[in-house]
Task: inverse folding
């Protein structure tokens, strides 16, 4: 493996992939390495393949790709060909809401909601496919960065215990190694970004570290159920259905939404998203089923599904979405340390998380000068 790159990007979620693709369109010869803790691209917009049952593949992170009315021209250039080729499909008719009286209605929203086909993870792949010189974008998966160093104007990262990778520019597409939560999550006793840059030498880095401390996160726990009873799944007519819970239900039960995803073998995966502003409470599977049956009491088709549902997995997202104190766009790039920042932790024109992630990455790719 070559060990020196023009850009090292930490992460390979939507922000990192959007950044890499747009930077590659501007500077097609710049070498870019995306270093990612996970096994694939996608980050929080990811897809899981069951290890036990190879037929099961489903989205268990971000459930829909949402864009506001004020979507930028640059984002439109990314998504328009995907909409035309039906890789991004409008799911307005597949998103419903259930209230505390057990009534189901169409969800009314100001956002356009899409799903990427066949899976959410393909969205990142499609973004990367739009780069013009893809061979300049490389990946290092299953690599967790706990420390970064800046030595003689070069960024150095130790990977896989011994080897060093270096670059002139570094991009953090995740706030993890700048936010104090990393001390507990990564079990370290220093803040990697603080450790890399001496206080007082770079105002942008100092301001990022000061601002990010105030950012909290929504935590989510996803309960994954499987229904394979033939009659029950045949009676269910949907390939995909997302039902949001009303605020009263979310406040009382922590249930945020429930998603039904048809599998290639005809069975159904049900993902229940639970939402927490503070500590996560674990709920027993029998209690979940009981609550769901009482909420959907007027709809036999759902009750039949819940009765036959078996809990097969759980996923815990400790920082699924930033909550308040988003950082100003002026802090996205420091030419003193050649460090850039992008992701949904930046405040850009009041749009939702995914749109902010893309918007900030495109903005950063345009800000940078490289030769
Ligand atoms: C269950 C769920 C529901 C959501 N619902 C909504 C919603 O309703 N509305 C909304 O606006 N947003 C929602 N989101 C948030 C949305 O998914 C994100 O805004 C979007 O995916 C952000 O993409 P990103 O690339 O900025 O970050 P990420 O997808 O988090 O990508 C960052 C990547 O960096 C990697 N990484 C981080 N630190 C390191 C390190 N030190 N070393 C190596 N790799 C590292 C991570 O593994 C990750 O893959 C939801 C997210 C989840 C999980």
Result:
């Amino acid at each position: 493996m070559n060990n020196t790159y023009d850009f090292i990007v930490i992460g390979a979620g939507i922000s990192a992939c959007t950044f890499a693709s747009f930077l590659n369109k501007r500077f097609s010869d710049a070498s870019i390495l995306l270093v990612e803790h996970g096994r694939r691209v996608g980050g929080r917009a990811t897809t899981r393949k069951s290890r036990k049952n190879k037929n099961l593949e489903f989205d268990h992170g971000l459930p829909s790709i949402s864009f506001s009315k004020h979507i930028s021209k640059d984002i439109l250039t990314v998504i328009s060909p995907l909409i035309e080729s039906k890789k991004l499909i409008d799911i307005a008719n597949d998103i419903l809401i259930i209230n505390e009286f057990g009534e189901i209605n169409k969800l009314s929203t100001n956002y356009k909601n899409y799903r990427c086909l066949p899976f959410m993870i393909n969205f990142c792949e499609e973004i990367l496919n739009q780069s013009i010189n893809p061979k300049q974008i490389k990946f290092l998966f299953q690599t967790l960065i706990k420390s970064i160093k800046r030595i003689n104007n070069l960024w150095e990262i130790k990977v896989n215990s011994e080897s060093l990778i270096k670059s002139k520019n570094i991009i953090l597409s995740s706030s993890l190694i700048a936010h104090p939560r990393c001390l507990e999550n990564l079990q370290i006793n220093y803040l990697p970004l603080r450790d890399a840059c001496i206080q007082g030498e770079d105002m942008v880095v100092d301001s990022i570290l000061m601002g990010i401390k105030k950012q909290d996160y929504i935590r989510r726990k996803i309960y994954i159920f499987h229904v394979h009873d033939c009659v029950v799944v045949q009676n269910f007519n949907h390939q995909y259905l997302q039902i949001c819970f009303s605020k009263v239900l979310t406040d009382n039960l922590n249930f945020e939404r429930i998603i039904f995803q048809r599998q290639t073998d005809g069975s159904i995966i049900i993902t229940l998203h639970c939402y927490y502003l503070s500590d996560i409470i674990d709920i027993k599977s029998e209690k979940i089923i009981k609550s769901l049956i009482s909420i959907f009491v007027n709809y036999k088709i759902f009750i039949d599904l819940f009765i036959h549902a078996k809990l097969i997995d759980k996923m815990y997202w400790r920082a699924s979405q930033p909550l308040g104190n988003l950082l100003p766009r002026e802090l996205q790039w420091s030419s003193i340390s050649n460090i850039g920042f992008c992701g949904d932790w930046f405040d850009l024109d009041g749009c939702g998380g995914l749109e902010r992630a893309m918007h900030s990455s495109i903005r950063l790719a345009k800000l940078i000068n490289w030769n």
